[in-house]
Design a protein that fits this description.
Strand content of chain C: 25-35%
Number of domains of chain B: 1
CATH topology of the largest domain in chain C: Immunoglobulin-like
CATH superfamily of chain B: Cytochrome c oxidase-like, subunit I domain
CATH architecture of the largest domain in chain C: Sandwich
Largest sheet of chain C: 5 strands, mixed
Largest sheet of chain B: 2 strands, antiparallel
CATH topology of chain B: Cytochrome C Oxidase, Chain A
Number of strands of chain C: 17
Number of domains of chain C: 2
Distance between the termini of chain C: 52 Å
Shape of chain B: globular
Helix content of chain C: 10-25%
Number of helices of chain B: 16
CATH class of chain B: Mainly Alpha
Oligomer: heterotrimer
Distance between the termini of chain B: 48 Å
Radius of gyration of chain B: 24 Å
Number of helices of chain C: 7
CATH class of the largest domain in chain C: Mainly Beta
CATH architecture of chain B: Up-down Bundle
Largest interface: A-B, 105 and 110 residues
Strand order of the largest sheet of chain B: 1-2
Strand order of the largest sheet of chain C: 5-11-10-7-8
Order of helices and strands of chain B: HHHHHHHEEHHHHHHHHHEE
Chains: A alpha+beta, B mainly alpha, C alpha+beta
Number of strands of chain B: 4
Order of helices and strands of chain C: HHHHHEHEHEEEEEEEEEEEEEEE
Radius of gyration of chain C: 24 Å
């Protein structure tokens, strides 16, 4: 039984490693400018975790195989180096490695959160609410009109609560149910929630950020490949959480300009 | 003594321990069935599960699960498992039974508190399950109950009214039970040790329970007021967790002034120590079982104790890793990231000590050993996925995906369950005077070990590929390819779940018809194997409390009884192993 | 004679079982009972007078004719009653420019987006027809209806359908306690969430209907014009249920409406539109006659 157990551990370990090595299920392809360091972190962590996983499971299996069902008269022995050696190994091999990962990972995090958006970043506002995302573009005046939550009416599709009659800045705002952005242009995404907690996740963009009711948050990013992607909500927000998504289209600048014109006509 | 005083409202810690075990068993069965329902729905979303409508007034029209019912089942599955199984069985059940015996005491110092702690926990369970039978059913906000969804009331969705109030009440009651229990454990360990039993001579199980109870006292003390504040937001019109200007279903909500992140801070300040409360007793049990079956002590008793203690201390400093992308200050995210990475060090030390101690051992393979070794394998698998989640930059891709779900199920769910099983097969003879059936035990082990890997390893791949968690169905385009994987997982889950019935049968059958056990079937050294009868008498040791002469794990020595010397034996030992 | 329909199902002076004849037919209020009874008692009065003054046999032919007429009156109750009830008809117009209705982008639910790709739908806050007619206006009798007519519950079960991520019909009128069915015709889940006035007699509820779930069969217990219905999963979905007592109608794209089976009487007629609210008019309905009542809303 011990030998079977040892073999089982090895088999499970190898089977678990195969999809990872083959990248059968892997991160979605990166279309962002800041995603490179994140993907590097992922690969390095996978290597480190993978080695730790393989080594420790194999050692476990080996020791189970070797030290079970002892022959009569066999005496117990201690591992050379004893506990101090293992503590040293833990601190030096694993501890140092993970701290190194952490330190190098600061840069990947800083790219996202400690670098402010450039001055010419295109602002887009996103509002999350049970159970849809809506987007707002500032229009030719470049300004977002104020929001009036008491005027929100999903029925009349005034989802942001704009007072177009009294707020001049709101007159040219463009509200859409899909997000489109031009390629290679930095986007400054202004985020707020209409009701409960939600989250904005686009795997290809390497962005995930919670919406916090009561807080205005923002992220910024630049997309480098055209295509149609999905924005999904990742913070449990109620029964429709699974169906809370919007499409993100990355287009050429010309295509984006004509898309925006078409949306403006539909306001 | 009447039946009620002896078996229902008993003051005997052993009866209380068994009561806790029974509660955990029932809770585990309920939690497991809930997971089956979830898994069937995830694989086959529009499947009409026969009889499902009996569980919910509105949640299963035509026996097809609605989106909210899935979330309600998920919330109850998690709440029941984390609180009423993983905190109850390894800690309250085995701890209540064996801690007083292992320190050499007659009972715990506050038997009435102890009895209350069980019945309070029981009431908490009843209140939680009652939420299935009210109005819109249980809350659907996950066991984490993030505000403001959990705080705005029924307008937030089905189950968000009465369901949340019942959930929070149940958990607050549970906290009271655990606080009473923790008080008893701490005082037992510090004040009730018998003559000769120094702190360092305590077995690793006792240290596991002691460290856990210290965490319990401080962590549950934060969760309880958080739950009370949540209840007040529902019934007293307060706004602790709800800011102003929220519009739900086109209606402006009347709250103002609250903070949604405050709930997350309070919850996770409890929540992270909680996962260590779930696993540290298991570490103690696994160490104890392994030592007895390896016939040698661990390479260093004290290093293991220090490491478990370090886990406990660090666990309070890492809670923000659940909140990396929550909107809290990104500098805080880095600040929490480093202790999270550091906590790998004591975890690694513990695993390496276990592995290193296996070297040169004389390992006896029985069901308890298999589950203990399985715990180590599971803890390694679940632990290494923590390397990813500890880093905020990678967490951007893995937060709220199945990667997280796979991580905590392996490292906490399955590993702790294996610890419970190891403890059960190991201590059943002492508790009931009969051996469990070894063949059935091994079948149970094999099905569980292979089955849980088949279930939870794929979760990590799904998470890497972006499969978001807490979705009742995968209608989003890029998740359609994941559905066949989910079906595979569901089949594995149903198979593994069914094999737990083998364990249930074994428990019940052995209780009444198992082979009678001797006082020390495993040739153990700690005080539980020194009781005059099996099961132990009411005052554990009869007329005279034992005196302790040795460290807890004197194996590999030459003595009159074999290769070991019991702690309570006055026999002098040749070639005893020195403590590091 | 009592106005309680139950009391009228009992053998009368002529030994006839009036149960079948007096049983309410759909939308026919029991108020028609007094008609038959008036005739019967009128006939009875005449008969008594004659018997007092002449030999009783002289009345036999007249008596037989009257008996026959009463029998006809009783057994052809429906025809007689239908002829006696009236209608209210009219047109509802909107003057001025109707407010712009926004196109609804359903891209988050691709099935519905595809179904509407050729003909995008707009919000339905104000739906005005080509000739200024206002659609989806609920017209009902808010005052003046006798309790028997008001409390009569039609036996038809209308359907409120969720199709292509819209509510069909956009506005539905039902009677208090009248059963209606909510159906999901889409291949994905919807969540129906009616929002009656908070603290009022009707209770809010919230139920999901996955694909394949059976229809929801339910009824409202108190009048309310109107209960807003939303879908939690698809935020653009919006509909209304107007819970009334007695006859009601919903205007079409020409703004035309007709209330059928209105017993003669003086009434207050109310028109309700979701954006512009309610307007009332006094209207008198003669027996078998059609009263006309037009409403005009002004676009702001």
């Amino acid at each position: 039984m011990a030998k079977v157990f040892a073999v089982t551990i090895i088999v499970i370990t190898i089977l678990s490693a195969i999809p990872v090595v083959l990248h059968t299920w892997w991160l979605a392809p990166d279309i962002s400018t800041h995603g490179g360091p994140i993907d590097e972190q992922m690969s390095e962590t996978m290597a480190e975790a993978g080695i730790s996983f393989l080594a420790s499971q194999i050692i476990l299996a080996l020791f189970i195989w070797r030290f079970s069902n002892p022959r009569p008269g066999e005496k117990i022995r201690n591992l050379p180096g004893g506990a101090p050696g293992l503590v040293a190994a833990a601190i030096m091999l694993v501890g140092a490695e993970v701290i190194a990962l952490g330190i190098f990972g600061v840069k990947a995090w800083a790219n996202v959160y400690f670098t402010p958006p450039q001055a010419n970043a295109m602002p887009v506002q996103v509002q999350a609410g049970q159970f849809a995302f809506y987007f707002r573009y500032p229009g030719p005046d470049g300004k977002f009109g104020p929001l009036h939550p008491e005027m929100i009416s999903e029925t009349s599709q005034n989802v942001f609560g704009l007072d177009v009659d009294h707020d001049p800045d709101s007159k040219d705002d463009i509200v859409t149910a899909e997000m489109a952005i031009p390629i290679n242009r930095e986007i400054h995404l202004l985020m707020h929630s209409k009701d409960v907690g939600h989250s904005f996740f686009v795997p290809e963009l390497r962005i995930q950020q919670d919406f916090v009711p009561g807080l205005d948050l923002s992220v910024h990013f630049t997309a480098t490949k055209t295509g149609r992607y999905e924005i999904v909500c990742t913070q449990l927000c109620g029964l429709g959480h699974y169906n809370m998504r919007a499409f993100l289209s990355v287009m050429s600048q010309e295509d984006f300009d004509s898309w925006l014109k078409k949306q403006a006509a539909m306001q | 003594m009447s039946f009620i005083r002896k078996y229902i409202f008993s003051l005997d810690h052993k009866v209380i321990g068994k009561q806790y075990y029974g509660l955990a068993l029932v809770a585990a069965l309920v939690g497991m069935v809930l997971s089956w329902l979830m898994r069937i729905h995830l694989g086959w979303t529009n499947f009409a599960i026969p009889g499902l409508h009996f569980l919910s007034a509105n949640g299963a029209p035509g026996n097809v699960m609605t989106p909210e019912f899935y979330l309600q089942l998920m919330t109850m599955h998690a709440t029941i498992m984390v609180f009423f199984v993983l905190t109850t069985a390894p800690f309250a059940a085995f701890g209540n039974y064996f801690l007083p015996i292992q320190v050499g005491a007659e009972d715990m110092p506050f038997p009435h508190f102890n009895m209350m702690s069980f019945w309070v926990t029981f009431v908490g369970f009843v209140v939680l399950v009652a939420s299935f039978f009210v109005g819109d059913g249980p809350t659907l906000g996950g066991w984490t109950q993030y505000a403001p969804l959990s705080a705005v009331g029924a307008i937030g969705g089905p189950g968000e009214g009465t369901g949340v109030v019942l959930w929070a009440t149940s958990i607050a009651i549970f906290c009271v039970g655990q606080l009473l229990g923790s008080l008893n454990f701490i005082t037992t360990t510090l004040d009730m040790r018998t003559r000769g039993m120094s702190l360092w001579r305590l077995p690793l199980t006792a240290w596991g329970w002691f460290i856990t109870s210290c965490m319990g006292l401080t962590a549950f003390a934060v969760l309880m007021p958080a739950c009370i504040l949540l209840i007040l937001d529902h019934v007293a019109g307060t706004s602790f967790f709800v800011p102003s200007n929220l519009v739900i279903s086109d209606q402006l909500q009347p709250h103002s002034g609250g903070s949604t992140l405050l709930w997350q801070h309070l919850f996770w300040f409890f929540g992270h120590p909680e996962v260590y409360i779930a696993i540290v007793p298991g570490m103690g049990i696994v160490s104890h079982v392994l030592i007895t079956n390896m016939r040698k002590p661990m390479l260093s008793h004290r290093v293991l104790i220090y490491s478990m203690g370090a886990l406990a201390v660090l666990s309070y400093m890492v809670y923000g890793h659940h909140m990396f992308v929550s909107g809290m200050n990104p500098i805080s995210s880095l600040a929490f990231s480093f202790p999270t990475l550091l906590i790998t060090i004591p975890s690694t030390i513990i695993v390496l000590i276990w592995l290193g101690s296996l070297y040169g051992a004389k390992l006896r393979i029985n069901t308890a050993t298999l589950f203990a070794l399985g715990f180590i394998s599971m803890f390694i698998s679940g632990g290494v996925s923590g390397f990813f989640l500890a880093q905020p930059s990678i967490d951007i891709m893995l937060h709220a995906t199945y990667f997280v779900v796979g991580h905590f199920h392996m490292v906490m769910g399955v590993a702790a369950m294996f610890g419970i099983f190891a403890g059960t097969y190991f201590w059943f003879p002492k508790m009931f005077g009969r051996m469990m059936n070894e063949t059935l035990g091994k079948v149970h082990f094999w099905c569980s070990f292979v089955g849980t890997y088949a279930i939870f390893m794929p979760f990590h791949y799904l998470g890497m590929a972006g499969n978001v968690r807490r979705y009742q169905a995968f209608v989003v385009d890029y998740m359609h390819p994941f559905i066949p994987v989910h079906r595979f997982i569901t089949v594995a889950a149903l198979f593994t779940g069914a094999s737990q019935l083998i364990f249930l049968y074994n428990l019940i059958h052995s209780r009444f018809w198992g082979v009678p056990a001797t006082d020390n079937p495993w040739q153990g050294t700690s005080l539980e194997w020194s009781t005059p009868t099996t099961p132990p008498p009411h005052n554990n040791f009869g007329d005279k409390l034992p005196e302790v002469y040795h460290d807890p794990y004197q194996y590999g020595v030459e003595s009159t009884v074999g290769d070991y010397v019991m702690q309570a034996s006055p026999e002098k030992v040749k070639s005893a192993h020195e403590e590091a | 004679m009592s106005r309680d329909p139950a009391a009228e199902i009992s053998p009368n002076l002529f030994g006839l079982d009036q149960a079948n004849g007096l049983k309410p037919i759909n939308n026919n209020p029991p108020a028609r009972q007094p008609e038959a009874n008036n005739e019967a008692s009128a006939a009875r009065g005449q008969e008594t007078k004659f018997m007092k003054t002449r030999c009783k046999y002289r009345f036999a032919p007249a008596f037989s004719v009257l008996l026959l007429l009463s029998f006809v009156a009783v057994s052809w109750n429906a025809k007689v009653d239908a002829a006696a009830t009236g209608k209210i008809t009219g047109t509802i117009k909107l003057t001025g420019t109707p407010p712009h209705q926004k196109t609804i982008d359903m891209s988050k639910e691709p099935f519905c987006a595809k179904e509407h790709a050729a003909n995008p739908v707009t919000t339905e806050g104000v739906v005005a027809g080509p000739n200024g007619g206002l659609k989806w206006v609920v017209v009902y009798i808010s005052e003046g209806l006798d309790p028997a007519s008001a409390n009569q519950v039609p036996s038809v079960t209308p359907t409120f359908d969720q199709k292509n991520c819209q509510y069909i019909p956009h506005v539905m009128a039902v009677d208090v306690n009248q059963h209606f069915k909510v159906v999901n015709s889409d291949p994905h889940s919807h969540n129906i969430h009616p929002l009656p006035a908070p603290g009022g007699p009707n209770h809010e509820w919230n139920k999901s209907q996955p694909q394949g779930a059976p229809p929801i069969d339910t009824a409202w217990t108190a009048p309310e014009v109107a209960i807003h219905v939303k879908c939690n999963i698809h935020p653009w979905m919006s509909g209304y249920m107007a819970v009334v007592k007695g006859p009601s109608a919903i205007s079409d794209e020409n703004g035309s409406y007709t209330l059928d089976n209105v017993p003669p009487g003086n009434y207050t007629l109310t028109a309700w539109q979701e954006t512009y609210g309610a307007q009332t008019q006094k209207v008198t309905v003669g027996a078998g006659a059609t009263a006309k009542a037009d409403f005009t809303y002004r676009a702001k």
